[in-house]
Amino acid sequence: MLRTRRRRPRTALSAGLLVLLTTLTALALPAPLAAAQAQRVESWGDNGAGQLGDGTNTDRHTPVTLAGLTAASVTGLAAGRSHGLALLSNGTVKAWGNNFFGQLGDGTTTNHPTPGGVRELSGVTAVAAGCGHSLALLDDGTVRAWGSNSVGQLGNGTTGGTSTTPIPVSGLSNVTAVATSCDHSLALLANGTVRAWGDNAFGQLGNGTTGGISNIPVPVSGLGGVRDIAAGFDHSLARLANGTVRAWGNNSNGELGNGTTGGISNVPIPVSGLSGVRDVAAGGGFSLARLANGTVRAWGNNSNGELGNGTTVSESNVPVPVSGLGGVRDIAAGSSHSLARLANGTVHAWGSNFSGQLGNGSTADSNLPVPVRTGIGYVRYIAASVTPFTASTSLAA
Known about the structure:
Layout: E1 4-5, E2 17-20, H1 31-36, E3 40-45, E4 60-70, E5 74-79, E6 83-88, E7 93-97, E8 112-117, E9 124-129, E10 133-138, E11 143-148, E12 162-168, E13 175-180, E14 184-189, E15 194-199, E16 213-219, E17 226-231, E18 235-240, E19 245-250, E20 264-270, E21 277-282, E22 286-291, E23 296-300, E24 316-321, E25 328-333, E26 337-342, E27 347-351, E28 366-371, E29 382-384, E30 393-396
């Protein structure tokens, strides 16, 4: 999942579970020790391309410190297929991991297992990461993109090739949030409408067509009053001002949540039985919604326990409660696992644990939420990567 808002960034990330955790150890340590210990940013899960940012290529089953960043300077995170992004308080961006397509934005295609600066960016208010590309929302309401452009992911009117530095996405202004998944992206405008670009194989652009691509942003049909957006692997979500949710794109696992399974919808349709929704997140083949009462609903694929309801029997084509969660303040969806940040600053995870992305010290899947073993005092931001695989990464700060 990947979604981010201006002023309150939310990110999306990739094939390793990358979780950035704000370590407010100062609350628990004597003053001299606390002052000497920086607030950490942490990551865990798949690390085949250095996407955990710890200087290695070793998978981690519990959180490790991400090199060169402190949580005090981080105001947003995003996890792509095998790279990560951190938005800093000064409006610049750091990137690390796989750089085959230039998705780190440093002018090269050299992988970096520790964070480095993205070139030619300032005034950034939100970031999002896809399979091989990255997005940044600027404080003037425009969007920059870099990395792979194989299906028009950069949104600049061209298809093919790459850009190793940020370039403008065409025709966008007054953008308040961005979201991206593997190969398609969404932008929420100040007037409550949504634009989409990139891959449209399953109608995930929501403009009434199916197949092909769009290398420029196009309007999503029939949407107004949108307050939140999320992009899954090949489906999309929008939360409306009235607390209901619309979904479009692939429905092979019931991820559109309208009581049917199979087929697609190339225009937004209502998700059944939801009201009072505050946030949405979209994963590999499932979806999440956080309600105003601090609980979470899930629907779609459940082969790895993605629904968090104690079963792995089958998918659900309508939202069901995630078991044992309350006081949830933020959610993130990966390829086949999920994260929830609670009001007390802790993080719980459920679903696939193939690469240790649940952060509980094992590689066993869990169909119920389990605590992430951070030992960290308070988490402010979380992110999980959506990839074509069960291996994934998480971030927290």
